Batch of 4 targets.
Target 1
Amino acid sequence: MNLKISALDFIQEVKNGNISAEDFVANTIERIQSVDDKLHAFLYVNEKAIEQAHEVDKKVKSGGKVGSCFGMPISIKDNICIKDTKTTCASKMLEDFVASYDATVITKLKEQDAIFVGKVNLDEFAMGLTTEFSAFGPSKNPWNNEYVPGGSSGGSAVSVSAFECVASLGSDTGGSVRNPASFCSTVGYKPTYGLISRYGLISYANSIEQIGPLTRTVKDTAFMLNMISGIDPNDNTTIDDKNEDYLSEIDSGIEGKKIGIIKEMIGGGIDPAVLSATNNAISKLESLGATCEEVSLDMVKYSVAAYYTITATEAGSNLARYDNLRYGYDFPVEGYEFNSYISKARRNFGPEVKRRMIIGGFVPSAGHAGKYFLKALKVKSKLTKEINDAFKKFDLLITPTVPILPFKIGEKIDDPVSLFLVDINTVTANLTGKPAISIPFDNSNGLPIGIQLMANSMHDKLLLQAAHALEQTVTLPEIPI
Amino acid sequence: MTMIGLEIHCQLTNLNSKLFCSCKANYREFEINENICPICIGLPGSLPRLNKEAVKKATIIAMALNCSIPEKIAFFRKNYFYPDSPKNFQITQLNIYGDTSVGGPGSIMVGDKKIRITRIQLEEDPGRLIYEGSSSKNLITLVDYNRAGTPLVEIVTEPDFETPKEVRDFLNILSDLLANLGVADPSLEGAMRADANVSIEGGKKVEIKNIGSFHDLEKAVHFEITRQESLHSRGIEIIQETRHWDDKRKITVSSRSKEEELDYRYFLEGDIPWIKINPEVQEKLKLGMPESISFKKERYISKYNIPVQVADVLSSDKFYSDLFEESHTETNAKEVSNIITTELMGLVDTREKRKASKLTAIHLKELADSIQSGKISRNSSKNALHEILKTGKDVSQIISELDLGNVSDESELSEIITQVISEEPQAVEQAKSNPQTINYLVGKVMQKTKGKADPILTLDLLKKLIGIL
């Protein structure tokens, strides 16, 4: 059975009766069992997946109403709650936490007959960009197992690119969907802030993060967005997209569109292969009828510092609830006073989480907020103004998703600051709430390179059309697995 | 000069649901940890879902206290670790980055004195801690999260009070006002709590926390002033500190200084977008506000000619004024107000008694009408009222069952009057020469009928039978 088909092809094949969802899911589970020992994308595999797919098949055969996903196997980043399923955030703190409710995206996908094959790996609480900070061990890049798959949604990207599922949901706080998508050669998309409900996504930095799909094609991403976008009474920050169909008119092309090349994101520190891929992408866009021109976003040079200041502040608050009193892992309270208990219990956080929580306790504190946190907020609002000005002139912006190629596992783990800088091209979309997408574009010595497009808020449909157009110009080598 | 400032916390007990989820705002009737959901116990991934009604109610309070209303309001996180706080932060409001809480500066008159309101903010109540175990060695702290997330309005005053009495007067006015607005039932246990700041001339500000009732608040303030004055007179410095009210010993006790060092790391709650309260919304809220206590009082006086003191007590208690509004007519208003203020208030003076009472507005209307039409005497109406509260039976039924009705049968009454005339020849003669003394004879008739003789008919018959018409 061909597990490499796109989501839309899978749906067509099941609809036509060429394949059954049960067979496909069973083969997918088999695939997970055969390759995941090596790749470690999955933290948990759903034993009932095959049975659930069988139920969908019954509906298909009986001519009953079938949800739009037709039993499609999807993997879910382990910071999104599925009822009665362990949701660990790849942390020892939540090792035994079983969610008691479904995230809104999960409810929506269940209604559309998606099958969740399992929960996938991430950097602990989504803090990192390699999955090396998972408390349960790193995932491996399927293109070369010695390399990191990116992160924090590394498990999502690995599972899609290694055909362990058809699509995945990740979360993107500073590039956590787009970065691993770029490193593993999948599509990865972060929508306009508020387009997808965060209810049931375990918060890291709630004011800027979004759930986003990782898929094989841009069309698949548009399809996934159709499934999960829209206003949610359980998330007051969601926006009403009036049931927009992101898949219709996906072939509109980009003729006449104006595209800005962000100068600060193709400058110093960029890998030559990444730069040449970017230039190549720019000529492709021009050949499709777009005009490209450089644009400067002055605030980008402060964006990573602002990003880490804001995310640490929010993380310090969002993760404060993990005192192990109500849920968590097995550690009896007897004999402890409250403060001594929580300081003991919180030892189970990993090093990167601790680092950010310590920063998060400092940067917004009295006497320091003015120098750090409030300044970071200023950068955020100035950057937003700059990018809004840019979108007065341009329809889209283009950058490489990550300025460097995937690196080896362990190579940067002891140098957090150099790791932080890898986020330079992705954090802007989060800080400004803009939609951004990474598509597979090139390959350098067997290591993938992704290209990022950004659009103005609520121009997600335009963004997907442009990404689809550019995607059509790309031919990439087969993954060696 | 003594300066006292207050921070009052009032639960919006009349709301259906909590501030950020659909659990009940009235948590009191639940078994421990039964009124909870993923949101109010802060399960991973849950998000606050703002109860817009709570914002409206809090805004109404701000308006009633003449506060400025900002066009946009925001929520902030107050970060601190405590087991009653399931997220280890509280969602509250803050005005340090501009006025963004539901109410800005305002004021209220307490007698002739203006008390300034600093701000009003909307926030979530934490859970409740229950301590078990007899000694510190086996002490267990249990947490009940039923209360967690209950909408709470904090009203902060300027240090404008100078005496415990002023504090008490203010609290009475405030709790009447909140009840009248229909936002809260201040008589519910724990619905209103307060902290106080007290300082005397030459001393630092001392904060008193953990005061469970308004009654104790007055006591705590009184104790604290005395304590500070005593220190001052002995030349001992009054330091800035937080003290707790010891409910059992009725004294304030210094808290460990740790609390004052807390840094709450306030920042904007990103999960709740800014809420616009534009002038149109404000206007709509204003129109929906109930009549104020002072307007009500004026109306009672001018429209029904009710005495000032009666109008005062009647208008300030929502329970009674609601009863009055529903039961009075153009003609019986004064009678109704009389029954309420002279009889009823003594009978249902506690929350429990009010709850147990079976009295309705219909009862009250019928009772007043019956007095006015002479069916029952004022005297007997007291017995009828007792019975109504207990049984909820019809007024007419009670009158006949308990034989409380006036004797208004002419022949029956004539018989009794004839008897009185024969027994009191002297008084009869006196009445003939001085008609005002006839009241003595009316009294005698009342005695014989145990107060049930129809007073108007009695007088008529007496005059007729004596022959002084």
Target 2
Amino acid sequence: MWRSPSPNLPRTRARTLLRTGNVEKFFQKSKIRYGVKTASLKAILFELEKRIGELEEYVNDPIIVYCKAGSRSQVACEILATHGFTKVHNMLGGIIAWIEAGYPIYTTYHHVTVNVEGKHVITQIEPLLLYQTGCMSCGCQLCAQDQTYQNNNTPSNVTVTTVEQDENHKETLVTYKVNDITYEATITQTLLWSHRKENAKANITAKFISTEITAEDISLQFYSLSYKVRHEEYNLTLLTTLTLLDSETYNSSFTIVNCAPAGKSELTSLELVKFSSSVTLSQQYAILGKVAKEVSEAYKKSEDETFKQLAKGYRIIEKEAEDLSKIVEKQLQDYDKEILESRAIFIDSECSVAASTICSAVITGMGAIACIWIASPCGMWYPVCYAACLVAWAAASGAFCTWLGNTLCGEETTVKQLGCGAACEVICLGCPGGNIACIMCSPLCEQVCEQIF
Amino acid sequence: MDPPYGAIVFLAVLSILVAVLSVRQTRQTGNKIHYVGVIVGCLMLSIFALALLGQALLAFILLVVGGLLCIAMLPRVMAVQKREMDKQLTKAIKEIDLSEPLRLKDFLRWKGWLKLAHRWGALKTAGIYSILGAIILAGITYTALRAFNMMNVWLVAGYTATATIVIFILFYRQISKTLEKPDKSV
């Protein structure tokens, strides 16, 4: 985990600063050489003069200032110098140069880029350090003043009917009525392949399912491969969704691998993997195994004992991904096609936490786009409608995702968990800034949750 | 424990609204990209239905697919929204004489806010608008929570605070962009 560069700064304040999208614009007094921060302040560059008082006690101490590449920290240095700081140093090249020099960076969040050149797989693992500002999907619609649309749409008669069901096939019809018009969506699921293996220590199940959703004139088809291992020492869940380009090629693949070894530390890790080359489905799993191996070795080399514990989880992912690759290659040849764009996420955390987190991030993102239409009839109150919709959507989806995550992982849900899930989403809005925003937001969530429930 | 029916029904209603309003916007603008709303709405409904039917895994898969779809479609939807907004902005600003005196009734339309922004600047105007929006939202939230016997001051405060930040950002962006237009009448 990227240790907060400002351990003495209250988390709420740190979060506010992070939310402004300028995490890279911080300056810091620290013994950075060893990755140990004795005192620090993170600030937006233009705030520096206003907050200079917070550093008053360090006016005669050596201060190292750094940013992403070294230019903004130079400006910060000049500001500090004009305010009487005597030993100010700019870290040339910024944090990028620090990383390139091979100095330690403590993080369990990484971007992994995979390049396949012939038989060679080249992986590049980079720390996920910088706050990436999420563009608010504002929609920004100044509706015409004469908009007189009145919304009397009260949905009724929502029904879900199983039209057809046998061992390998299921067809479900969802209907609902709005303004006397009936809308329908048909979901057809076909089990194309399944695999089961049991031994004294583990229970392995795998399924490959085709799903087709038809609504009005629109049809969407995709495949999904689920691979679950219930081992006495760990639980591993792998889920891949594949969208089709044509009969020979997959357009995209998205894989979530969650591994929770028994007795693990409370540290959560997350690796975002992006393939720069097209690969087949079986190759994808083999490569994910190699990526997991490299990540595992990186954690193993860490000087920090808690980080070393993470290596175990990635060794498990390595082994299971390689096994799955062989299974797909042998048993699922018809579907072992080329994938144009592959992405994956490795999460080392409890199943329900991982599932709820992914659900929240995705569903809040969907809310951001959905609220554009919901707010469209609001005229001059568009921003109010959009914000109200977005936050209400987040609250409801927080409760829903908490329940879905627990259900998916076979866990019970308590009323408190539901309430906390909803409250957290209201505060964090699905962490639009990314994972660092989530890390910073979680403690605040917990505090608020404790006060409410 | 039972599923959170309240949250699911609420999200289902919003999803249906999304589908219906996107169809309406397609008809108004003639741009078929708004049909994405229909897909999003239907996907959400299917997700809730599957989750309630005990198909949590499939619901989760659909959710991920929906998320991928939204990510893929977001730039196009945003581009269309931006184009439509620019058209409306140009029309709105042309109809307003910013030098006219401010009247209270103007604040019920964009006219008043644009005039105010012209005089006081976008930042202050966005602040006033956000406070007004916050008061309205806090009032609605308070009333709704009281009605459902779920009143909690932290919930009202949290909801209002988060929404106010979003309102401020949206309104500030809109209003400052409008005032930057070179063809505004002064």
Target 3
Amino acid sequence: MNQPVPVLSVRGLTKAYHDRAVLTGVDLDVAEHQVVVLIGASGSGKSTLLRCVDLLEDVDDGQILLDGRDISDPRIDADEARQAMGMVFQSFNLFPHMTALANVALAPRVVHGSSRRDAEERGRELLSRVGLSSHADSYPDKLSGGQQQRVAIARALAYEPRLLLLDEITSALDPELVGEVLTLVGELAAAGRTIVMATHEMAFARDVADTVCFLDGGRIVESGPAAEVLTTPREDRTRQFLQRFTGGR
Amino acid sequence: MTTAALDRVAYRQSRARRSTLIALVSTVVFAAVLLVAVTSSPGWPRVRESFFNLRIGWDSLPALLEGLWLNVRVLIVCQVLILIFGLGLAAVRTLRGPVWFPLRALATGYVDLFRGLPLLICLYLVGFGLPGLRLSGLPNDPVLLGGLALVLIYSAYVAEVFRAGIESVHPSQLAAAKSLGLNHRRTMQLVVLPQATRRVTPALLNDFVALQKDCGLISVLGAVDAVRAAQIQAATTYNFTPYVVAGLLFVALAIPSARLADWAANRVATRQGAL
């Protein structure tokens, strides 16, 4: 049987800010419907990896293939390539001058040519799916952090992206609000979304991830099924990280 | 309510009454001292006669109001043009790509030049220099030329205000817009500029209060605005009261704008506090 082309394929990705190397040769494959969780200490390169994949950062070397097409080639139209991916940020980054509904309906309307009515209808549908149908006309500053992040997820889903990139989306939330966002991500995973997610929520990773990758010093040190990597890691560095992590809690 | 709570309320109310009373007494004493100091000065009778002559002030009012109406019309037209040119200049300065280099450089040079040039010199150069070229089709109406000079100078200021607003939008907003697939133009139009204009509204209104009184400077070109009308009245009556009246008219015109600026600044502050 032929191996299907992975949705995302990262090959030898390197990235440095000035002289500081942040990614030093990352290889990663994400198959359709797969949930890949990136773990690792702060500064290990998780966020930079996600930002490089979404072409928010220029790549120094290596390749990023989306459905087999090299999107890291500087000659391609980056705006167009990003339309196939949805990203959710640690600090929500909702547009404060737009209502929740306008945030969600923006990309379908402006980028994907939906009519205003279709975009808003779909937006309301998505907002009700993330449990916020009654807040469609609220401005972001009137919503709690957890609600804002759920709007941000709806915004990233509004144009049916091939790949969802979640960058520590619960790190800026109060502990009691983390659950509502993670439950939503769990539902998306169960619905077959292809997701790459950077997180510090180990319990969540164990429950939802198909693959867990441990990053250290700008490369993936160890990756495998969630249960294996998180409970019986092969590498010393993974073990140390997990010990420090669980010990620190 | 418990007695302790009632006690607190009563105490706070008495403090508040006391504060109001002190403010009132202090204001009255201050005003009285000022009044006595001015009216008891040796030159006061002469000053009152030549600056605060009610009869002459009242007689000059129609001419001054007619002049002020010209100022108001110049102000409104200039405000609209300044907003358009200022925003255009700011937008040009944020264009990316080597094709736009000449435009960017031109906009930067323009802002440097007209922000540094004194308004009065600009008025003289435009008002007397342009007609001096004797080109057909060029207006030689002092109102038009004076308005042009105001637009030239104030557009440079307003462009910088807009640019500061554009740069104050956090890069994470740009990242979010990009991640949705919006191109640079759409990002500016739908995400950056709406937030930037909201933020700079108080500063813009402040600049417009300044513009309001600088409109009186077109009188140096001979336009019969409120300042020029006051000059004419003063010359015919040998009395300075028309200047005082014209000044008060400008102040009265500026007060609504100043309150509007306060209100806008306050609104932005509460909005950002809620974020």
Target 4
Amino acid sequence: MANACFTYSEKASYAYVLCTTSSAVDAIAGTALPVFDSDHDDVVFTNNTSDDITYTAAAGTFTRKSRNLSCGFNAGDFSRNF
Amino acid sequence: MVLTLVTSQETSDRLQTTTFNLNSASAIYTAAPFIDFAMDPTETTHQRIITIAADDVLHIKTTTPGHTMGIVKGTSVVITEITSGVFASSTVTTAGSNNTTDEFNPFDTDGDGPAFAAAGLIANGVVFDETDASMKIPSSGKYLIMVNNLYAAGGSTNNTNTIRLYRSAGSYDITTADERLFSNAVKIHSTVDPTEHTICVIEDLNADDYLAITYDVGAGRVQAELGATFTVIKLQEGQPIAGTGRGLGGYGNIYASVMSDQDSTADDDDVNPFDEGTLTGDATFTTRAISGIVFSPAEGTFTVDKPGLYFIMHNPIFQVAGNVVVTTKILVNGVIVSASDTAFINNVIEDPMNLTNTAFVELQRNDVVTVFTGANTAVNIAHSAGSHITMFRYFGFFRTQEALASGLIGDDLTINTFSQGNLSVQYDRNIDQLPFKFGIRGAGTLRGRGTEPSVVKLGDKKV
């Protein structure tokens, strides 16, 4: 029987970021900046992401990693739809 | 992916341009709603389906050229995989210029309709036809339908835009009233457009059904704007994840989508819009689809039957008696999990107005979800008919693979009471081996106590 590794973050693919404290009103000016950048003055974000998606708060980016599971399910190097 | 964006505008009334980019490539989504700094913060929803390969980097950016803006509490992004493999998402890349007082399809590319560049289109299974701007459903099932309606007056219109969703069986037809799934009436005002209104609903559809959106202003004009996106996703309903071999159930088979049929009473205290006691006239709701979640109109609650990760989107439509800051809250067991507390509504220019609030939370069995809205001052607010909430379990209890028990007594006459192959496979579980207590027949101790496992609680005995 395959080894088990059954947690939500290990098995599903998801990312959730929520702003719980507003930024300064002038956090973003004439140049486009990441919405979920923790460097915005005063802002506070919480997040919950799966193991195969990296939320980089300092850059406000989301990176999808390939998933190498050891519990009998396929790894995920192919493209997926979100 | 769904971006619920609540923003402020520090100075001057301006467009705020929001983009999605993959890596360093050009934007694959662009929208530019108008934010009046005297009526901020404002909520706008942005969404589309994106194909993401390994190591791709997703950028979500915003700006207000020449001025400054802020990100406001309640802003969120939810990114979840489409596990059914059946979907379509069509984003307007060039605004329309329609000029009609008749009800019309704002995504129809004919004549003065908008345009969809290839980068704004993605589909598999569901077919988007630009000629009639319909979504054709390939197979029966439950479908999540989400439309972020970015629209503008294209003139000096100040009116109500009635946005309707239709389903037609076997052919495209938007004129039959009995094929209307629902309608939302929201404000269109030329001084604050483009504006945005979100529809998010789950419908039970059949193969060869067609879906279409219409706008109807009655007087003046309205047009779909850059970023308006029509998305249809089939819920996976417990099947393995298409094309991946992953998944043994748990995706998308639990859901609820409920709409109020009546306006709510106006109140300056917190209001639960799904409590029938708050509605005027006949206190009725339309349940568009529901499974595994108990909706109680008497309490205004949604109780989930199974644990898992849940997506929740609340789309109230407000009418207010004066200028007010509206607070929208999503609660689990009475505790706020998402609050957007600074959306300003100007009762002359903006209402009726939609403010979306979104959450993505882990719920346990019998957890109770409620939504509330309130005012920051003694100004009455009411919910319009058509206000709705949609939630579904994105990911649930992930079971180990089904297998038959190997038998209590082996070929060598070994008694396998506690073996994985005999005992464990008799239970839905997300571990390899059950605690031995599950294999004890009768009382576990002489006192007859202590047989209740204290750790494993997610799985139920198979029946």
